[in-house]
Design goal:
The chain is mainly alpha-helical. 65% of the residues lie in helices and 2% in strands. It contains 20 helices and 3 strands. A hairpin with a 6-residue loop joins strand 2 (229-230) and strand 3. The structure holds zinc ion.
Length: 491
């Protein structure tokens, strides 16, 4: 009886997973090859898919099955845990609130894009105010008496709390600020120079994807406005973009997305199309993209290899030698934009958003005062004023689409990557010799074995603890950053 309930529930979930994959494929299509004139029809198609998925997630039969089901083993127990959690979250939010949020955020995203174009926060503030109000309501419904922000955060990083992240970030912030001050004290390092043909950039990017272990028989690389990875199991696609004067944009965003994609492709085949068949959290996901991009892709050893490939491909690129190339790849520079920030300053961008969004949700900060609060904090942490709203409070899409609680998972991913990198170096002592030949395979095999294959079987902290032998802390990331950038920017 209970075994049957389990089997029926898993079969039902499998169909839900399949439909969710289809919905994801519609979004991928929209960002890559959809004809422009199809936008309105696509919105209707995606709305219909969302309604079907929501109805399935809140279907009372799921509750009945969960009450009756007995897991046959540990993996089964993990599946039930994930289904129970997803069902509880989906049922906690009243249907009319969910609909209102979907409608509002779809409008708010358009308003935000226009406000950013005009660089005028006052155009965006009224609709953001509505978004914050509804997100507070949603958070309260999810929290069931607990902390509202934590309930939102839990949607992206199950089990994480703002208090624990705050403690971690408090430890990081002074050391990061000191590092950025030291690096930006002297003259800025130059960027590369030359002609970087777009088709050649894409060719090199695909080569890098292959070297880092991306399986092209179960994925593809296309160009889009924003780099992203989408899908799970046997169909995991990534996008990238090219800039005529900056080949690193294409190369490193490709390696970053390959990290996300390899996580999905590396999950144990037996878990495909089940609730545990995805990366377990945004933080763990970001740890994979970051370690591929930064700790491996921007390492001195890999830069040795890449320098040769860049010169083979583009000829003269305006750097004197290999050492200068490594310094250029890892240069710290002044800037306002999170997505363009280096390994050190990126985390400062995240912490700023984390503090502001928590204050917004708590009601300690009003939307009317958000721009001023952003500008004050930016000047404190970065040492120069924001020049325009488009480069400040309006730069990210997240808040317009209601993604409160998402930002901290970027920095948490860096922290996890720091822990994993330290453990990886212990496990593969001759890693640099492989990287110098353009072969990160020993690293990606270790990550697959110790992180990726588990999918959603273990909680995020547990994934890191199992791989590293200890729970996540900021220490390894900070030591890595101090070591690397301390050497690049000696005092
Ligand atoms: Zn990412």
């Amino acid at each position: 009886m209970s075994g049957r309930a389990f089997d029926e529930l898993l079969a039902y979930q499998r169909e839900t997973e399949a439909l969710a994959q289809v919905a994801g494929r519609l979004s991928w299509d929209q960002e890559t090859v959809m004809p422009r004139g199809a936008a309105a029809q696509r919105a209707e198609e995606m709305g219909a898919m969302e309604a079907v998925l929501h109805a399935r997630r809140t279907d009372p039969r799921v509750g009945d099955w969960l009450a009756a089901a007995e897991a046959p083993d540990d993996r089964g127990a993990a599946q039930l845990r994930l289904i129970r959690r997803d069902h509880a979250r989906a049922c906690a939010v009243p249907a009319d609130l969910a609909t209102a949020l979907a409608r509002l955020t779809s409008r708010a995203q358009g308003v935000w894009a226009e406000a950013r174009e005009m660089s005028d926060f006052s155009l965006f503030a009224p609709v953001l105010d509505e978004v914050v109000r509804l997100k507070r309501e949603e958070g309260a419904a999810l929290a069931r008496g607990g902390d509202v922000y934590d309930a939102l955060l839990d949607g992206f990083e199950p089990g994480a709390t703002a208090a624990e992240l705050q403690a971690m970030f408090d430890e990081m912030r002074p050391r990061l600020v000191a590092l950025r001050l030291r690096a930006l004290d002297g003259p800025e390092r130059a960027a590369v120079q030359g002609r970087f043909d777009a088709a050649e950039q894409m060719r090199l990017a695909r080569e890098m994807a292959e070297r880092f272990g991306y399986d092209f028989t179960r994925g593809r690389v296309d160009q889009a406005v924003h780099p992203f990875s989408s899908g799970s199991g046997d169909d995991v696609r990534i996008t990238t973009r090219t800039a005529p004067d900056d080949p690193f944009n294409c190369l490193y965003s490709t390696i970053h997305e390959v990290g996300h994609a390899c996580y999905e492709q590396g999950i144990d085949r037996a878990l495909h199309m089940t609730p545990a068949g995805h990366g377990v959290s945004m933080g763990v996901h970001e740890s994979q993209s970051r370690i591929y991009e930064n700790q491996l892709g921007r390492s001195r050893a890999f830069c040795h290899f890449l320098y040769g490939r860049m010169r083979d491909t583009f000829g003269e690129i305006g750097v004197a030698d290999e050492e200068a190339f490594y310094a250029t790849v890892n240069r710290l520079h002044r800037g306002y934009i999170r997505t363009e920030a280096d390994e050190v300053q990126y985390n400062l961008h995240v912490m700023l958003r984390f503090d502001l969004e928590r204050a917004l949700i708590a009601g300690d900060l009003q939307v009317a005062d958000l721009e001023a609060a952003w500008n004050d904090r930016f000047a404190d942490d970065f040492g120069y004023p924001v020049d325009r709203a488009a480069n400040g409070v309006l730069q990210d899409v997240h808040w317009s689409v209601g993604l409160f609680g998402y930002f901290p998972t970027y920095a948490l991913g860096n922290v996890y990557a720091g822990c994993l990198h330290a453990a990886l170096r212990r496990a593969v002592p001759d890693l640099d010799a492989h990287l110098a030949e353009g072969e990160p395979g020993a690293a990606t095999a270790w990550l697959r074995e110790n992180v990726q294959r588990h999918g959603g079987l273990y909680a995020p902290r547990e994934v890191i603890a199992r791989a590293c032998g200890a729970g996540p802390t900021a220490g390894p990331l900070l030591d890595y950053l101090d070591g690397k950038f301390g050497a690049l920017y000696p005092a």
